Amino acid sequence: MNLLEYFARHHREILQATLEHVWLVGIAMLLAVAVGVPLGVLVARQPWLARPILGGANIAETIPSLALFGFLLPVPWLGDRAERIAIAALALYALLPIIRNTAAGITGVDRAIRDAARGMGMTEWQILFQVELPLSFSTMLAGIRVATVLTVGIATIAAAVGAGGLGEFIFRGLAMVNNQLILAGAIPAALLALIADFLLGVCERRLQPARS
Amino acid sequence: MSSETKRTAGRSSLPDAHPVIEFRHASYQLPDGRALLRDLNLAVERGETLVLLGRSGAGKSTALKLINRMLEPSDGAVLVEGRSTLEGDPIELRRRIGYVIQEVGLFPHFTVEQNISLLPRLEHWPDERIRARVAELLQLVGLSEAEFLHRYPHQLSGGQRQRVGVARALAADPPILLMDEPFGALDPLTRAEVQCEFQDLQRRLKKTIVIVTHHVAEALLLGDHIGVIDAGALVGLHTPKDFMSATEPVTAAYTANVRMFEKLEAPE
What we know:
Number of strands of chain A: 0
Shape of chain A: elongated
Order of helices and strands of chain A: HHHHHHHHHH
Number of strands of chain B: 10
Helix content of chain B: 40-55%
Strand order of the largest sheet of chain B: 6-7-8-3-9-10
Structural class of chain A: mainly alpha
Largest sheet of chain B: 6 strands, mixed
Strand content of chain B: 15-25%
Helix content of chain A: over 70%
Largest sheet of chain A: none
Oligomer: heterodimer
Radius of gyration of chain A: 20 Å
Number of helices of chain A: 10
Largest interface: A-B, 22 and 30 residues
Distance between the termini of chain A: 59 Å
Number of helices of chain B: 11
């Protein structure tokens, strides 16, 4: 039985797993953006917070993913359901590129533009929301793009704690020494990563601020 | 300091009794103790243009930033319309003071229209009034509304950007205009052009203006008074007329520079 036949026969399960995968990654990314962007703003605004915040995110990044899933198992509310663990761990991994790029985008705004904004009487919040963040969008999105591609890959490991997704096929395949099964998980995961990369890349170029 | 504030409060009942901008023994020090400006005493009357002339790093821009409280004096006081800049809300103060800087600082993600209308929008003007004001300002700085309204800053030439910068600073019709090397980034010919236009604007608008420059020709052309600043101190204050006969060394160096060019122009 060749690979195509296998895909044809099991397309329902593969589609189901792919949707689970997208869901895990999607929720994790929403969480990571919701937390990472404000932290990035803090890093840019309060240099004394840069070290602890970036340091913390850096440490999270260095924990082996399998171990991180394991560490989160005993955490009260999180440990109750496998998807919660998976989403929390994935969001944690996605945090660093998002924080770093948000901060880089904001500190990269031309000093003259900030000065002009301040001098004409804009408040700090107005400067942030109307000037700095819009001018940082493409840099921020580049970070979100990197984080998304990374997360699509790491999410396959979520199957180890029973969170579902395309990792199910890979782990089953590994256990049964069945390459077709492994590829049934790996190929859709790779395609997902490529599609996410492409779509976010398009958004990124769209949002590129016109520079003089 | 408190006695000075009292004196000012007493005078402020008469609207024109005090200068629009006044430096009283104003100093500015960096946190490390380095003095950028020492004991500055200066007054700018209503409708007058003061040019601060000096080398880069002499403290001119620092003086300018004390007026709109981008910086706060470490000693002495700066009074705007009779009130210390430290009284009240800095945002409110800055909205009554137009500010133009060398790099212009137009927002690259905003069109010309959005750039100019930003402050009126923040002040919640009605749409109709904003539209009319933008049209009026574009006409004032000599840019065609049809052609430029929806352009982005990167689609403008240096001179056009500068004109939009001036229009933006004038948007909410502030009584005071601060300009930091406003024409510094322009090539000499465009610069001369924009300077002449600005001179015309100055006559029509009668704003109180402070311009910072290191170009002596610009100072002579635009200033009612020229304050020469050197190493953080005011070393001379002249009208353009008596500027050329001033004797203090720094100013004399500037006039010598001007004469050098006059010699070139003179027929042999």
